[in-house]
């Protein structure tokens, strides 16, 4: 708790240098987060961009601190007092469905990155996530939900939220007991509705899967065997292979293709985002839309 006391003191003294606060694995519990929220209320930092008194926090790490729903409510209060806070990491706590409900509205209005993995969230909490964190007005760009209890029902609800979402670029749903039904719901949305999600992590494998994948979020230096989704014939990998195609389309700017009258001068920029290792995607886009790459030429 010494680090909490130090942070609270800095906030109450309106120390504008306290922009990044890392309290991971400090076991501060709900009382510690509540103390932090009270200190944020007392902070009197102002700036040219934000003339009203506010907390200077821009990034907050509270992972593995045994924080319960009341603590999640206090995190929401911290967000409200910290308009510059864009990066929040609160994985490995005990927020549960009610905790996510406390946090969602404040988070959706200002966070770029929101990590709420391993927080005992199930399909009930997934409804709040779909309606608020994935709502049309949400500004969240990266959402990590790994290690919860969403299951197929929760994944299907998340898929509903992705239908209208235009801002989320990265979504982590690993280790949520999502199998074929949930994956097909997500695939359908990527195929027909969502043109902005670029990365979707779903790393569980079937028992007979021959593929050993490494997530883009896994920074472990240990070498691992990797192969393409289409190298494996298991049902899960075949669905993932289809998902990967539409995600690659999104990374290449598929949303701009909603208007077939794409200006010719935009196509080089769009195609520059397509992986050179996957020329089939480039060919598919060119053969279907047949854009005039060079103005004045058919």
From TrEMBL:
<dbReference type="GO" id="GO:0005829">
    <property type="term" value="C:cytosol"/>
</dbReference>
<dbReference type="Pfam" id="PF13516">
    <property type="entry name" value="LRR_6"/>
</dbReference>
<dbReference type="GO" id="GO:0048471">
    <property type="term" value="C:perinuclear region of cytoplasm"/>
</dbReference>
<dbReference type="GO" id="GO:0005634">
    <property type="term" value="C:nucleus"/>
</dbReference>
<dbReference type="GO" id="GO:0006913">
    <property type="term" value="P:nucleocytoplasmic transport"/>
</dbReference>
<dbReference type="InterPro" id="IPR001611">
    <property type="entry name" value="Leu-rich_rpt"/>
</dbReference>
<keyword id="KW-0677">Repeat</keyword>
<keyword id="KW-0343">GTPase activation</keyword>
<dbReference type="InterPro" id="IPR032675">
    <property type="entry name" value="LRR_dom_sf"/>
</dbReference>
<dbReference type="GO" id="GO:0031267">
    <property type="term" value="F:small GTPase binding"/>
</dbReference>
<dbReference type="InterPro" id="IPR027038">
    <property type="entry name" value="RanGap"/>
</dbReference>
<keyword id="KW-0433">Leucine-rich repeat</keyword>
<dbReference type="GO" id="GO:0005096">
    <property type="term" value="F:GTPase activator activity"/>
</dbReference>
<protein>
    <submittedName>
        <fullName>Uncharacterized protein</fullName>
    </submittedName>
</protein>
């Amino acid at each position: 708790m010494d680090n909490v006391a130090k942070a609270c003191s800095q906030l109450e003294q309106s120390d504008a240098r306290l922009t990044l606060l890392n309290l991971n694995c400090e076991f501060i519990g709900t009382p510690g987060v509540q103390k932090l929220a009270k200190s944020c209320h007392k902070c009197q930092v102002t700036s040219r961009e934000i003339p009203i008194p506010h907390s200077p926090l821009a990034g907050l790490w509270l992972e593995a601190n045994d924080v319960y729903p009341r603590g999640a409510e206090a995190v929401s209060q911290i967000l409200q007092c910290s308009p510059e806070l864009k990066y929040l990491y609160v994985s490995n706590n005990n927020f549960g469905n009610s905790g996510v409900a406390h946090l969602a509205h404040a988070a959706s209005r200002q966070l770029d990155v929101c990590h709420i993995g391993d927080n005992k969230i199930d399909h009930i909490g997934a409804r709040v996530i779909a309606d608020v964190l994935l709502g049309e007005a949400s500004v969240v760009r990266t959402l990590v939900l790994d290690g919860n209890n969403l299951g197929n029902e929760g994944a299907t609800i998340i898929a509903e939220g992705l239908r209208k979402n235009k801002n989320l670029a990265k979504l982590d749903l690993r280790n949520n007991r999502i199998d074929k039904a949930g994956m097909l719901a997500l695939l359908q949305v990527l195929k027909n509705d969502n043109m902005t999600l670029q990365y979707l992590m779903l790393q569980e494998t079937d028992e007979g899967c021959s593929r050993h994948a490494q997530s883009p979020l896994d920074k472990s230096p240990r070498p691992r065997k990797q192969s393409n989704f289409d190298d494996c014939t298991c049902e899960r990998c075949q669905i993932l292979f289809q998902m990967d195609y539409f995600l690659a389309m999104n990374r290449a700017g598929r949303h701009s293709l909603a208007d077939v009258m794409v200006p010719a001068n935009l196509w080089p920029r769009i195609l520059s985002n397509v992986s050179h290792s996957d020329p089939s995607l480039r060919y598919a886009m060119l053969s279907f839309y047949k854009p005039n790459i060079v103005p004045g030429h058919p």
